[in-house]
Structures are given as C-alpha cells and as structure tokens.
Amino acid sequence: MEMLNVDRLLAAARDRTQLTDFGPDRFIEPLRVLVNAINTEAELTPAGLAAQNGRLINALSNRLRKQELLARHPEILDTPAEVAFAIVSLPRTGSTMLQRLLGASPSLTATRWWEAIFPLPMDGEGRTGNHVRIAQAEALIQQITAAATGLDAMHKMDPHAHDEDLLIVEQSFVSTMPEAMMYVPSYGNYVLYADAGWVYDELMEYLQILQWQTPGRAARRWVLKSPNHMLHAPVILDRFPTAVIVMTHRDIIRVMASWYSVAESLRRADSDADRTADNVAHWNQRWRAGMDAMARARLEAPDRFFDVKYEDLLTDPMAVAAAVHARGLLPFGAADREALTAWLEANRRDDRPSHVYALDRFGVTEDEVRKLFPEEICY
User: Can you give the residue ranges of every domain in the chain?
Assistant: First the structure.
C-alpha cells in the first residue's frame, strides 16, 4: 500500500458518504501532522498502514455525517449534555472499571465502545437504529484483539461496554490515541502544545448527538474517562463546569510497567520495528507532562477534584461508587446498588487471563520510575 495522503483520505471519505462538508477546517493541520508522522516515523507493516488508513477515513466520514446531521437537525444542540464526572488519571489505575461501574447507575451514562467508534447513524439505521454500527464494531474488535497479542488480558475489549470517550476525541485528530498505537513522536509533540478547546467543543456536540439518538438519555449525566484528558485538564474544567474530576491512583511502578506492556502490544500490532526503548522514553515524558498538568489544575480549582485509590476500588467498589456519587451531589439509592451489583456479578475477572508484566522487560528500574514520578505528584 502506498503512503498515506491527506487529499486522498478526504476524497475517500467523501466517496464513502457521498457528502462534501467537513465543517470548519481546523482539523486539517493536526491531520497533516499525523499523516506525516505515520509516513516518516511509524514504520508500519502493510497491514498496519491499511488499518490506519481505514481509521482515518472512518474519522473523516464521521465528520461529514456530523455536519450533515446537524444541518438537518440543529435542534440537537439545544439540549446540553451535562457531565457529572470526568475520570482523569494515568492509565492502568482502575479508571476503566470505575467508569463502567458508574455507567451502570440509572442516573448516569457513558460512551459505549461501538458508539464512540461509530457515533453517527449510518444508512438504513434512522435516528435510533444501531444494527449496522454494532455489527461493524463487533468485527473490528475481533480484528484488533487478533492483531494485538495479549490485549484481552490487559483490557477487556467489548463493543457493548462503556469505554473511553477518547475514541470520539481522536476523531478531531488531537489526541494521544495515535501515540498509543504507533511510534509517532513528532505528532506527540504537536499534541502536547496544541489548542484543545475546539476539540472538547466537538466532544460536547457528539455527546449531544448520542443523547438525541437515545431518547431519555438526556435525563442522565455523563461520565467521561481518558488519560488523554490529563493534558487538557484546564479545558475539562472550563468546558464542563459541573464536572468533578475523579483521579484514580495506583502504585506508579505497577502503573508504568503495565502501561509499557499495553503500549508495546498495541504498537507491535501494526509494526515489526524494534522501538521498545524509544516508546518507553516517550511515555515517560508524556505521562509526566500529564501529571504536571493535573497538579497545576488542582492548584487552580482544588474543590473540583476527588481521589480514588485503586486498592479501595478493588476491595469495596460499592463504597467507592457511593462516595463518588456523594461528591457529585447525586443520590445513591437502592436502584443504584441493584444496578451496580448486577454489573459486578457480570464482570468478574475470573474468566480472563492474567496480565503479566515487569519493568525489567523494558530496561527500566524502580528507582528511575520513582525519580521521574515522585510521590508528591502521584498522590
């Protein structure tokens, strides 16, 4: 397959959707930076290049569908999406479990994997239909888990489960998602300093669209979640003024060893190149920048943060959920306990393989990690 080309990607999305209006062109610059990084740095296999080509065309197709839908139904934007909680923390700290647990509450909602990847109705679905998108998401999950060795042990991939809204954010082409899948340092540096205000404005639009597709969802409040949000904590505080930022915490040695393993598995799915040491160095820098950004945001708005320990989440998840609800001034009654109990029963870890990881596999020592992430910025 030939190298990626922005003009060809745009044309392919237009051909797929038979639409032409992408909306404001502010996405073009980050897209060009990303495409250049993929072509010059990522060292993808032909299959990996094809996969990334497909991802980008899907994101561009979603932009076209969003513009067309909002032009036909401008009333969608009349109903705001109210965010109760944004789980913003390092990866591998229990944040996925917490989002899925909270998302089970009858008063809350969160993005599901299938709708985050395919947030716009496709031909034949209508306003509330989803059968085409779900079928495509289920097939995509199978492809991803087959390509990324051991991924199911690291992160339960389920198209129907609540998952990161990063999957929506990345469709604006300013996110950490490409960095998790490929070695693209120039793009990562661009994202670190890029304006993200408009990206979160688009996230809000997508949440409003998802509410419109599911009547009754607007009565619930949203639970956002992604480590990506660490870099943009001030934007989260500004764009979602009612949201409490929930930060999950785990011993940093376990966090980084686990994340190195996940990131390497994802990268190896699309590349045969040995970039392990480079990838470790990149993520050390990236997550330290995220923790520093969170520390600065706490100084500006300490009353907007709530902390959860990983160990508490594992040993007494119901108590953690109740405490988070209380922090958000939300009731936590019998219906919540019943729904969360059902989720916990249905999502036991017992039937999944264990995720085995260790720092020394990546040439890193505990002292190096603790020096980079001192206790004062982690807890």
Answer: 6-378
